Every structure is written in C-alpha cells, then in structure tokens.
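ARCHIVE CARD
Drawer: 12
Card no.: 0347
Subject: one protein chain, sequence and derived structure
Cross-reference: see card 0346
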Amino acid sequence: MLGLVPFSGFIEKDKDERSLNLVITRTEKSKDSYSSTETISLRENVLRYSKSFSGKLKSKPAVNKSMRLTQEETGEVFLKFKQSGLYLNVTSPKRNEFKIPYSSLSADLVIFAQANERYEIQLYDIASELQKTEEYKKIEMLQAWLLLKFPK
C-alpha cells in the first residue's frame, strides 16, 4: 500500500500570505505626451520596485530593484500600513473629459493584510486635485517610506 502524504504537507507552514501592491502612474497629455509608472510590491518577504516610462520619456532607462526582507522587516511594513490609516476601500470615479493639456495621476493600492483582510484604494484625477486628498498624501508617505528600504 502506498503511503500518501496529505496535501497540507506540501504547504509551507511559515509562509507569509500578506502582500502589498502599489502602482502610481503620472501622465502628461499635451503635444509632448508621456507617462511614468512606479510599482512597489511586497510578497513572500521580497520587496520589489520598478519605474518605467513611455511617450516623450521612453528613452529613459527603466529601473528595477528587489530585496529580501526579514520576517521582522515585513511585519514593520504592515505595521506602517496600519499606522498610516489606509485600512480603507476607496474608488474615485474615473473621468475621461479632462481638457488638454493636463497632468493626471492615478494611484492603486491593494493590500492583503492577513487572511480575509483585503484593502483596495483606486484614485484617479487631475494631478493638482488628487495631490490635495488625504488618501493620496498617505499613499505618497507610504511610498516614500518603502523606497527608503532600498540601499542607495
């Protein structure tokens, strides 16, 4: 008779299921249109950062960084998130009728803080308007704090 191992035997017991994904896109719509997209993600203790460009800025080199965090450092990230007051589910209406030229900004933050605890914030507006909102200011502060984690 074959000895069968229960499926749960294949699951890492200490696997950290928490994750974070933050994407901020800045767009300039004019005769010299361009956009830049910054992404920060944290999954299974690996923090990743990327920045890409398109349009007028497409010749700029993309940036890609990653680093492994300790369990303690990963815990600090989620504690910082909790302290930031971003335990929210917010979606701003997506508008497409901006008068050209304009600068727009979108911020998408998705966090799985623990089992069955998911938060999603999706913001999009004219840059000057979005930058005034409390949610965007908190997202910017979280982004700046996460970027400090990467060595220079």
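Annotation on reverse: Helices lie at 71-83, 127-130, 134-147. The first helix runs from residue 71 to 83.
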